[in-house]
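Task: sequence design from structure.
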């Protein structure tokens, strides 16, 4: 039986603006399996970033359900929700949010410390992930000594280090040149598959979709299309 790591059921998020109700997420439902890498795409204002914030337990939905490993976040109190986010969810922001006084490797290991799992094996794994992301010679550099693209790759490694069930990435290639972006997304996809995690990447760059298993397209808060076959996805990535 295939494991459903993330399930979204009839999700709604509304905002009040100048007396008008904005449906940022409008009755969206989907599932992501363990070992599946999914892209969430759509124009600015389509609701994809709001959706990602809800999936990361950073924003509460107006209605609907988000289940991580079968656990309904709506039924949790704040303490349990924080614990689930810390243990089960990995998240990379567009702003990398690295801790300025910790080295690249220490930033990655910070998630292990939060979960009480900082040990020798964790240090080895953090170095391995950073090396795969092309940062083997930057382990001991502070964020200020890294380029924006290098900082973003550290943030990706941090999101993966504690073996979360669900990994969420908000525009992970925004500060990377095209060649490095392809390399990072391909490595990200390989790590998702190898470690049997559910991955969702919000991206505006459709070319990056060539490395995902499925594409969810949003528009005006709704899920309007799902690209599931490799041919469909490659056509989308080629801009056709």
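Answer:
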């Amino acid at each position: 039986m295939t494991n459903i790591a993330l399930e979204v059921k009839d999700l709604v998020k509304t905002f009040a603006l100048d007396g008008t109700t904005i449906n940022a997420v409008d009755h969206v439902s989907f599932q992501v399996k363990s070992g599946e890498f999914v892209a969430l795409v759509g124009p600015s204002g389509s609701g994809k970033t709001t959706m990602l914030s809800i999936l990361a337990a950073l924003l509460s939905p107006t209605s609907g359900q988000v289940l991580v490993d079968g656990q309904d976040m709506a039924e949790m109190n704040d303490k349990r929700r924080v614990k689930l986010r810390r243990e089960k969810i990995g998240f990379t922001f567009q702003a990398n949010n690295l801790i300025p006084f910790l080295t690249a490797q220490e930033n990655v290991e910070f998630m292990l410390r939060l979960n009480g799992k900082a040990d020798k094996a964790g240090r080895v794994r953090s170095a391995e992930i950073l090396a795969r992301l092309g940062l083997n010679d930057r382990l001991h550099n502070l964020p200020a000594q890294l380029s924006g693209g290098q900082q973003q790759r550290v943030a990706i490694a941090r999101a993966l280090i504690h073996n979360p069930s669900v990994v969420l990435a908000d525009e992970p290639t925004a500060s990377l040149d095209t060649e490095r972006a392809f390399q990072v997304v391909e490595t990200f996809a390989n790590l998702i598959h190898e470690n049997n995690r559910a991955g969702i990447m919000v991206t505006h760059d459709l070319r990056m979709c060539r490395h995902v298993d499925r594409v969810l397209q949003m528009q005006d808060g709704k899920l309007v299309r799902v690209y599931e076959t490799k041919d469909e996805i490659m056509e989308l990535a080629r801009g056709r």
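Residues 178-194 form the longest helix (17 residues).
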